[in-house]
Amino acid sequence: MQSGTAPIFNGAVAISRNSILAVGPADRIIKKYPGHRIVQLNNAVLMPGLINVHAHLELPPLLDAIGAETFPEWVMNLIIAKKRLDNTDYSAAARENIRALIQTGTTTVGEICTHGVSPALLKQSGLRAMVFHEIISMAPSGPRQPRCRPLRRHGRLAPYFSSLLPPPSSLLKHGISPHAPHTVSEGVLLQIRLLSKQRRLHLSMHVAESQDEIRLLQRKKNGLEKLYQAAGWDIAWAPEADSPFDYLHRLGLLSRNFLAVHAVQATDRDISLMKKSRTPVAHCPRSNKETGVGKMALKKFLDAAITIGLGTDSLASSPSLNLWDEMRYALRVHKNSGISAWDIFTMATIGGAKALGMEKEIGSLEPGKKADIIAVPLPEKNTGDIYSDLLRETKSCIMSMVNGKIIHSKENV
Fold first, then answer.
1. CA-CA distance, 129 to 324, in Å (whole number)?
2. DSSP class per residue in 299-338
3. How confident is the model at residue 410 (pLDDT cuts 50, 70, 90)?
4. How many Å apart are CA 413 and CA 251, to the nearest integer?
5. What angle (nearest 5°) sits at the alpha carbon of residue 36, between those of residues 34 and 41?
6. In angstroms, rounded to a whole number, what is the distance separating the alpha carbons of residues 398 and 49?
7. What are 145-163's pLDDT values in tens digits?
8. Cα torsion for 391, 395, 396, 397, to the nearest 10°?
9. Which residues contact residue 380 at a Cβ distance below 8 angstroms, ignoring those fewer than 6 apart?
C-alpha cells in the first residue's frame, strides 16, 4: 500500500540497508533485484509505519483514577496523582508504553519528555522519535520585574536545554515543548523561539485545548485559577489575548516547525493564522473526549489545507496508545462531516510525517525514503474499500520495520 496511490495487490518493497529502493508488483520487483533476500508475508498488507505525533510515554495508566467531568479538575487530579510517582514509575511506564507502540504498528512517535527517562529507552527500542523536552516555567515579567529569571536554576535557556540532551542518534531527534501558553512565561517563550531558530528545533505545545484556557487569557472567570494557586503563581502573570493563537502569533512562534496540540477551541481566525503560518496540528480525539474539552472541527482544518497528524496523548487521558484505536474513533466521530477512512490514514502516516517535519524521510512507501514499514493482517471482509476494512479489523501488526531493521515480528521473517 502506497500513500497517495491506489493499493498494489501482490506487491513488494525492495530495500537496501535503511532505505526503500522500489515499490511495485512482486514479480517485477523480484526479477529486478534477484540477489535480495526475500521475506514472504502471506495474507498481509504492507503499509507505511504509523506516526503518533503526540504522546507522553512516561505516564502510567492513570485515566480511571483521575477521570473528571471538567478539564481543570482533570489537571488537578493529575498533579495529585503524580506526587505519588517517581522515576522508577516513569521508567516502567515508558518501557511498557514503547512496547505497546511497537506491537501495534507505530514506527515514529512525537514524545513529550517531562521526567528525562524516555529518550534513552526510545534509543534502545529502535523506534524513530522526535523527543520534545517539556518546559513549564511561569514567572513574573514586565515593568515590575524586567530582569526575571525564567527558569528555576538557569537564567538562560540554551545551557538548560543542552543539559537535557542525551547522546545523539540517527533515529532520535530533539525538540522543545513549552507546555502551554498559560504555563510558560512570555520571557521564556521568546528564549525558546530564539533557540529553536538557532538550532532548527521543532516545537510542540498544547494550544487552545479547553475553554478554560481561552477564558484565562481573556481575563474571564475560569477553572484554571486553582492550577495557578497550586503552583504558587499569580493569576496576573497569565498572558492576555483574545486567543492563544493570537498570542503565539504576536510572539512569532507560529510556523511549520511549531506543532499545535489539540486546537479544539480554535476559531476561524485562528485557523486562518495557522494556514498562513503553515502551522501543523496534532489531533488527539480520544483525549479530547476523556478530558471533556470537546470535539475539534477537523473538516475545517482539512479544508484549509492545514497539516494534521494523529496522536494518542497519554494513558492519563486516553485508554490506549494503539493508534488503530485512535484512527477508528476519529473516523467514528468525524465521518458525518465528510471525513473518510482515507483521510484518517493520511493523518496517521504522511500527515504525521509532515507535522513532525519528516515527510522527506518517512510517511509513505516511496523510493528514497527510509524503510519504516509495517505488515498488518489482510482484512477478512472485503468491502472494496481497503482503508475502511483495515480500520474495522486491525488491532496489531505482524511485522514492524524501522530504518530497514525489523524490530517486531509475529512470524518467522
1. 19
2. HHHHHTT--EEE----TTTSS---HHHHHHHHHHHHGGGT
3. confident
4. 51
5. 105
6. 12
7. 323 333 333 346 666 666 6
8. -30
9. 393
- The answer to whether the CB of 307 falls within 8 A of the CB of 353 is no
Q: How far apart are CA 164 and CA 117, in angstroms?
A: 10
Determine the Cα angle at 292 with ends 290 and 298, to 5°: 90
Where are any strands of DSSP class E within 318-403? 373-377, 399-402
Phi first, then psi, for residue 54 (nearest 5°) are -150, 110
Taking residue 121's Cβ as centre, other Cβ atoms within 10 Å add up to 20
CB 357 within 8 A of CB 257: yes
Q: Give the pairing of strands 281-283 and 308-310.
A: parallel
The one-letter amino acid at 92: A
Please say whether the beta carbons of 164 and 210 come within 8 A. Answer: no
In whole angstroms, how far apart are CA 368 and each of 3, 77, 182, 362? 14, 47, 42, 10
H-state helical runs in 200-322: 211-217, 225-231, 244-250, 268-277, 285-290, 298-303
Is the pTM higher than 0.90? yes
Handedness of CA 284, 288, 293, 298 (dihedral sign): positive
